[in-house]
C-alpha cells in the first residue's frame, strides 16, 4: 500500500559527473505537497462501498484458528474443497481487476514511477533448518566399523566424530552402538555439575523445563 | 419400523403395584381410574419393592384414601397417623403444592404434562431415602446411560478424528460429575439442610457429610479396575469417562452421607431418565441439545502433545503428504531480550499450521502442535447423528458419518 512507503527519501548526491540522463525529482519540499502526501485514505474495511450502515470486520492480526482445517487435511469428498477453490479464483480475479498503477492512488509520493507493482512471488519463506534427505547409504561392513571404533576408544571416537566421518546423524550412531559405561560416567559428571548450581540457576532451569511442556499444550 | 411406546416394552420390568403407598400421586390417581374400569394399572416405579417389614413403619396406613384426597390439608393430621417428620423424604402428594417445583418445571421449559411428583422423586438421593421406589437411584442410572450415549455420539460424529483420550476428556467436560453439578446449580437447585418428610419437595434431598467427618468408604479412592490399563481396555471395560476407578453405584449409597456434588449430579441424571420415560426420546434429545451441547467447550485446549514434530511427520508419512518443513514466516527482535518468531509448517506448498514463540524451537514445536490440532479437529459440514433417525420411517435424510482410521501412534 502507498501508506507504507517512506516519506523521507535520501536524494542521491552525485558528486562525480554521471553519464546517466538527468531526471527531474520532485520532493515534498513545500508544506502543501507534504500535506497532500499525508492525507491517507482510510483502510478499505472502514470505507464501505454502500451508503447504508454495514458491519465493520477488521480484527487484529492473530494466530490462525485450529478449527479451520487446512485444505490438505480435508477428505477427498468434502464440500469445502470446491468452496476454497471458488474463493481463491474469485480473489485472484478481483485482485487482478483492481490492480492499478500506484501513481493513480492518493498519497503516493510524487517521485514514484508509474510501473505496475511486481506480482507476488510464489516462493516459500526460508526453512528454519536446512531440509535433508535420508540417504540410507551405510552397509553392514561400515556399521561394523562404527561399532569397532566406538567401542575401542569411546573418548576419541565420539558420536559427533563418527557422524562426520560416515556422513550419518549422531542419532544413528547412538542407535547402532551404545556405550553404557561412558553414558553413566558422563551423566554422573553432569549430575555433579548440577549439584554446584545455586538456587536461582536451578529454579530457572526447572522453570524452563516446565515451560517447554506447555509448548505441546499450546498454552 | 413402527415406534413402540417405551412403557409398553418395559412394563413387565416395572414393579408390581404396591398396596401400601403409591409411588407417586400421579400414578395413584390413574390407578384409581383404571381400577374402576377393571384395567390393569401401570405404576411409575421402575424397581420392584422388596416386601420387608421395616418399611411398614414409615408408611401411612391408608394410602388409597390419602391418594384420593390429597389436597385437603385439614384432614391430613387425622388421616396420617405417622407424622411427616418420620418420613425419610417428602410425601409425593406434597409435590403438587410445592411452589419451588412449579417454578423449576417452568424454568426448564418442561411441558405441563410432566408430573411434578416425578420431578420431586428425581430430587431425592438414595442417601436420604433408601427405599428404591421413592429415591432417584434407578432413574439416575437410566439418565446416566442416556447422557453418555448422546454425548459420545455427538462428539464422534462431529469430530470424527479426535484421539480417544481427548474424547474421554471431552465427555467428562460435558457430562462429568462436576459439569452436572454446575448444571444443577445453574438451574437453581438448592439443597435441603436435612432431608425429611416435612421439607419442601423442591429442595435437593440428601444426607450431608458432617463437617470434619471422614469421607465414607464407598466414596474414597479405591484400587483401579486393572493396573495395566490400555486405551482399548478403557474403551471396552470402563465407563464413558475412561476413569480408572468405578464410581459408586447409586444403589450402594443408601443412607451414606454424600457430598453435594454427588447428589446434584444424580438429580440431573435422574431428570434426564424421567424425561425419557414420561415424555419420550425426541424431547430428551431436544433437552440435551439445549442444556448440554449448547455449552461451549474449546476442545482444542484438551490436547497435550509430547513430541508434536515427530507426530506430524508420522502423520504426513501415513497420509502420503510431503514431509513437513518448518519455515520462518516473520521475526522481530532476534538479538533483543524478547524476540518473536513466527514459524509456519508447510507440506509442499500448503501451509498446515502456524505458531509464534520466543525461540525458533518453540515456534516450530507450537506450529507442529497447531497443525496436529487442525488435523484432529476436523469437523464435517453435514452431520446426522444415528439417534436422530431412530423410530423415523423416512430415512432419506440420513447421511453416513465419516469414520477416520485413527490417531497417529508413534
Summary, kept brief:
The complex is a heterodimer of chains A (219) and B (410). Chain A has 219 residues and is mainly alpha-helical.
Contiguous runs where pLDDT drops below 50 for at least 5 residues of chain A = 1-11
**Helix count from the secondary structure assignment of chain B:** 14
**Beta-strand percentage range of chain B:** 5-15%
**Tell me, what is the CATH class of the largest domain in chain B?**
Mainly Alpha
Report on the architecture of this protein.
The complex is a heterodimer of chains A (219) and B (410). Chain A is mostly helical and 219 residues long. Chain A has a domain at 140-215. Chain A has 7 helices and no strands. Chain A has helices spanning 31-38, 80-98, 140-152, 159-166, 170-176, 180-195, 199-215. In chain A, helix 4 packs across helix 5 (170-176). The longest helix of chain A has 19 residues, at 80-98. Mean pLDDT of chain A is 84; it is low at 1-11. Chain B has 410 residues and is mainly α. Chain B has 2 domains: 6-299, Ribonuclease III domain (Ribonuclease iii, N-terminal Endonuclease Domain, Chain A, Orthogonal Bundle), CATH 1.10.1520.10; 303-376, 2-Layer Sandwich (Double Stranded RNA Binding Domain). Chain B has 14 helices and 3 strands. Chain B has a 3-stranded antiparallel beta sheet with strand order 1-2-3. In chain B, strand 2 and strand 3 form a beta hairpin. The longest helix of chain B is centred in the middle third of the chain and has 22 residues, at 137-158. The model of chain B is unreliable at 6-77 (pLDDT under 50). At the A-B interface, loops of A face strand 1, strand 2, strand 3 and helix 14 of B.
Highlighted features:
heterodimer, A: 219 residues, mainly alpha, 7 helices, elongated, disordered N terminus, B: 410 residues, Ribonuclease iii, N-terminal Endonuclease Domain, Chain A, Double Stranded RNA Binding Domain, 2 domains, three-stranded antiparallel β-sheet, 14 helices, Ribonuclease III (chain B)
Amino acid at each position: 500500500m502507498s501508506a507504507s512507503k517512506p516519506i523521507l527519501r535520501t536524494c542521491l548526491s552525485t558528486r562525480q559527473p554521471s553519464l546517466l540522463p538527468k531526471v527531474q525529482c520532485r520532493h515534498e519540499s513545500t508544506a502543501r505537497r507534504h500535506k497532500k502526501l499525508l492525507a491517507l485514505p482510510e483502510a478499505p474495511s472502514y470505507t464501505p462501498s454502500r451508503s447504508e450502515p454495514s458491519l465493520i470486520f477488521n480484527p487484529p492480526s492473530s494466530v490462525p484458528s485450529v478449527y479451520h482445517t487446512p485444505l490438505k487435511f480435508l477428505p477427498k469428498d468434502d464440500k469445502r474443497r470446491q468452496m476454497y477453490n471458488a474463493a481463491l479464483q474469485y480473489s485472484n480475479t478481483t485482485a487482478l481487476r483492481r490492480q492499478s498503477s500506484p501513481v493513480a492512488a492518493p498519497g503516493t509520493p510524487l517521485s514514484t514511477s508509474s510501473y505496475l507493482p511486481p506480482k507476488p512471488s510464489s516462493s516459500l519463506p526460508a526453512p528454519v533448518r536446512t531440509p535433508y534427505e535420508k540417504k540410507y547409504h551405510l552397509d553392514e561392513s561400515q556399521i561394523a566399523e562404527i561399532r569397532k571404533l566406538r567401542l575401542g576408544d569411546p573418548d576419541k571416537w565420539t558420536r559427533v566424530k563418527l557422524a562426520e566421518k560416515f556422513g550419518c546423524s549422531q542419532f544413528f550412531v547412538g542407535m547402532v552402538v551404545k556405550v553404557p559405561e561412558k553414558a553413566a560416567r558422563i551423566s554422573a559428571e553432569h549430575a555433579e555439575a548440577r549439584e554446584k548450581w545455586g538456587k536461582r540457576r536451578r529454579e530457572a532451569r526447572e522453570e524452563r523445563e516446565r515451560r517447554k511442556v506447555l509448548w505441546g499444550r499450546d498454552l | 419400523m413402527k415406534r413402540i411406546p417405551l412403557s409398553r416394552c418395559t412394563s413387565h420390568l416395572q414393579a408390581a403395584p404396591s398396596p401400601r403407598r403409591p409411588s407417586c400421586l400421579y400414578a395413584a390417581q390413574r390407578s384409581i381410574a383404571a381400577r374402576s374400569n377393571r384395567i390393569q394399572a401401570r405404576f411409575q416405579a421402575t424397581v420392584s419393592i422388596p416386601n420387608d417389614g421395616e418399611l411398614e413403619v414409615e408408611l401411612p396406613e391408608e394410602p388409597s384414601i390419602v391418594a384420593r384426597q390429597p389436597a385437603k390439608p385439614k384432614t391430613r393430621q387425622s388421616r396420617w397417623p405417622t407424622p411427616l417428620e418420620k418420613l425419610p423424604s417428602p410425601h409425593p402428594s406434597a409435590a403438587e403444592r410445592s411452589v419451588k417445583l412449579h417454578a423449576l418445571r417452568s424454568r426448564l421449559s418442561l411441558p405441563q404434562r410432566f408430573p411434578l411428583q416425578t420431578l420431586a422423586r428425581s430430587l431425592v438421593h438414595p442417601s436420604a431415602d433408601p427405599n428404591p421406589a421413592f429415591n432417584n437411584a434407578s432413574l439416575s442410572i437410566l439418565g446416566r446411560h442416556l447422557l453418555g450415549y448422546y454425548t459420545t455420539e455427538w462428539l464422534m460424529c462431529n469430530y470424527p478424528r479426535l484421539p480417544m483420550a481427548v474424547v474421554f476428556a471431552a465427555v467428562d467436560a460435558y457430562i462429568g460429575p462436576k459439569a452436572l453439578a454446575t448444571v444443577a446449580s445453574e438451574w437453581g437447585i438448592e439443597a435441603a439442610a436435612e432431608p425429611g418428610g416435612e421439607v419442601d419437595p423442591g429442595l435437593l434431598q440428601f444426607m450431608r457429610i458432617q463437617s470434619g467427618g471422614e469421607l465414607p468408604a464407598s466414596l474414597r479412592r479405591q484400587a483401579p479396575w486393572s493396573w495395566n490399563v490400555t486405551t482399548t481396555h478403557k474403551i471396552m471395560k470402563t465407563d464413558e469417562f475412561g476413569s480408572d476407578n468405578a464410581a459408586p453405584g447409586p444403589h450402594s449409597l443408601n443412607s451414606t452421607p454424600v457430598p453435594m456434588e454427588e447428589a446434584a449430579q444424580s438429580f440431573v441424571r435422574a431428570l434426564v431418565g424421567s424425561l425419557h420415560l414420561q415424555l419420550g426420546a425426541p424431547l430428551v434429545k431436544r433437552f440435551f441439545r439445549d442444556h448440554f451441547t449448547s455449552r461451549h467447550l474449546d476442545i482444542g485446549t484438551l490436547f497435550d502433545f509430547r513430541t508434536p514434530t515427530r507426530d506430524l511427520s508420522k502423520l504426513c508419512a501415513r497420509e502420503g503428504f510431503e514431509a513437513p518443513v518448518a519455515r520462518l514466516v516473520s521475526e522481530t527482535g532476534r538479538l533483543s531480550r524478547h524476540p518473536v518468531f513466527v514459524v509456519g509448517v508447510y507440506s509442499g506448498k500448503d501451509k498446515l499450521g502456524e505458531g509464534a514463540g520466543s525461540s525458533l524451537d518453540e515456534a516450530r514445536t507450537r506450529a507442529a502442535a497447531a497443525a496436529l490440532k487442525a488435523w484432529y479437529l476436523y469437523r464435517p459440514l453435514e452431520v446426522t447423528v444415528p439417534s436422530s433417525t431412530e423410530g423415523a420411517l423416512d430415512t432419506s435424510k440420513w447421511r453416513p458419518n465419516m469414520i477416520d482410521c485413527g490417531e497417529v501412534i508413534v
